[in-house]
Design brief:
With 427 residues, this protein is mainly α. It is built from 15 helices and no strands.
């Protein structure tokens, strides 16, 4: 009598669903807070910072597009690093991405509650806050366990819903007949430019979550490059245009804590702030939906290959989704969101993303040698671009503080211990 086979995942994610997942994985709370910071860093040159950052992130997206098109299994960057650089670096990649996504999701869950406080001030009290976080994350977890199709449909809906208020704000801004305001001059120093580009590179980050559910993509080898670059075009255009609108409508934008809400107030009156608060809630919930669709697939992939406990690779016999990984992810996000304010997430995401991008660049160079005839998208001058990406990572790492270095060392140590515990197991 043969043992029952493990249920397999369903290939239900089409090309445009993957585009939506890229957009949903990137556009979150940062879109509603960055315009003021960028003006503070570089003044009226802020729009050019978007151009520079989009160019930099395009290098890394190109690298991930080539890597992702070679695989049709779950795991995303973890899998690319494991196959290209070996098990140790795969585990390191997995931990860096896992922790970044976990803390980012917890921060967005908290921001959802903060923005809801615009309409219901009492929700920020401890009891209602915990209850709301439980309902929010519980609903998203159930939708994603129910089927990858329902999770994808929810992600698609929230992608459209989060882009709609931003698109309406952009339209209102360009139709506005009032006299544009002038921002106070700011001396754009090299340090200011570095801060601006760093902030935007990390604001553009998160697309790697869209690479994790490749085992459920209909044709990931063909669809992934299209999804990444189409998503980047939409994201960069949206963020750049909202920056321009905010600069045209909000006096002293550098001093605004809620720049897009202030822009909407200037354009359509007092209702504008509530409109943008609603948009921010949709944006953060959309971000959470995308993370719940993507990140548990990495946990599933690591368990499937023996790098995490095998139980985390369990697939629901009826719904055919990695339900244990989804449930674990939701519980951990809820716990971190309840615990408090995760401002240190910026420190983790800053350093960890640079490490993951650097490992990915090395993986591209290695896989070009290991798989010279792979049936995959080939990035023009791929090895040269990968080296350029490594140089960019090195330049940005050089700007990190001692605190960054301590956090990165801690994460790397966790990954090392993980590797030592499993290295004797069959990969």
């Amino acid at each position: 009598m043969t043992a029952p086979t493990q249920p397999r995942l369903v290939r239900a994610l089409g090309r445009w669903t993957m585009v939506g997942l890229v957009i949903n994985s990137v556009i979150g709370s940062a879109a509603f807070g960055l315009p003021g910071d960028l003006v503070r860093f570089v003044g009226n040159s802020a729009p050019w910072a978007y151009v520079l950052a989009a160019g930099g992130i395009a290098l890394f997206m190109g690298v991930f597009a080539e890597l992702g098109s070679q695989f049709s299994e779950a795991g995303g960057p973890y899998l690319f690093a494991r196959e290209g650089c070996g098990r140790f670096w795969g585990i390191q990649m997995g931990w860096f991405i896992w922790l970044v996504r976990l803390t980012s999701a917890a921060a967005n869950a908290n921001l959802f509650v903060v923005y809801l406080g615009e309409f219901w001030p009492g929700v920020t009290a401890t009891g209602p806050r915990i209850a709301l976080l439980g309902l929010l994350l519980g609903g998203l977890v159930l939708a994603n366990i129910r089927s990858v199709g329902s999770g994808a449909r929810l992600s698609n809906f929230l992608t459209v819903a989060k882009l709609t208020p931003l698109a309406l704000l952009i339209l209102a801004g360009f139709l506005w007949t009032g006299a544009p305001v002038t921002q106070p001059p700011v001396a754009a120093t090299s340090a200011g430019w570095m801060n601006a580009v760093l902030a935007l590179l990390f604001a553009f980050g998160g697309f790697e979550a869209a690479l994790m559910p490749l085992a459920e993509g209909k044709d990931p080898r063909r669809d992934l490059p299209f999804a990444l670059f189409t998503g980047l075009l939409v994201i960069a255009s949206c963020l750049l245009l909202t920056q321009i609108v905010a600069m045209r409508t909000v006096p002293n934008l550098a001093g605004s804590a809620r720049p897009l809400a202030d822009a909407a107030r200037a354009l359509v009156g007092p209702a504008g702030a509530g409109f943008i608060a609603l948009g921010a809630m949709i944006s953060t919930s959309g971000y959470l939906s995308a993370q719940l669709l993507g990140v548990p697939r990495q946990t599933y992939a690591m368990a499937e290959r023996g790098d995490f406990p095998a139980s985390l690779g369990g697939v629901h016999p009826r719904f055919r989704t990695p339900w244990i990984s989804i449930l674990l992810w939701g519980v951990l996000v809820l716990a971190l969101a309840i615990y408090g304010n995760f401002i240190w997430n910026a420190i983790i995401s800053a350093g960890a993303r640079l490490i993951t991008y650097g490992i990915a660049c090395v993986a591209l160079i290695r896989l070009r040698r290991l798989r010279p005839h792979a049936d995959a998208f080939r990035l023009p001058a791929g090895p040269v671009i990968a080296v350029a990406g490594l140089v960019l990572c090195a330049v940005l790492v050089a700007q990190m503080s001692l605190t960054h270095a301590v956090v990165i060392s801690l994460i790397a140590t966790i990954g090392l211990v993980n590797w030592l515990l499993v290295r004797g197991n069959r990969p």
